[in-house]
Amino acid sequence: MAFLDEVLKQPGPGLPPVQGDPGYGPAGLCLVLARFRYKRGWRFEVGPNEAFMGRPDGWRSPYEWCLKITSAPVEDARGSGVTSPVITVVPLPYLMPDTEGDWVRWLWHQVCQAELHEAGEWFVVGDGRPYDPH
Length: 134
Description:
This protein is of the alpha+beta class. 31% of the residues lie in helices and 16% in strands. It has one domain. The termini are far apart.
């Protein structure tokens, strides 16, 4: 919840304040994540996307805020013997959900996308990977 406190302090059009419904803006996603559980070893974080940081006028775009999904370590699908976590960084939507239920649906979609990416790496027919995401 430390990051939630930081989110709520940020000014500017890129981070709308929490208004009435606590699901509004990035803070709403943080509130959902505080109660969220998924597979053992997976982590979900909301934070600034550093690629968008550093504007001299201090304005913050909504695209600066991202969801970072880090899986538990997984074996490389190509058989290299390397095991590492899969990291997915997704920008928060420009038109941010304004209810908790909307954030839950958005989070569900991001989890499914991360899992679908991995399935595409492991899905092999003969010698080919018809759904290889790379």
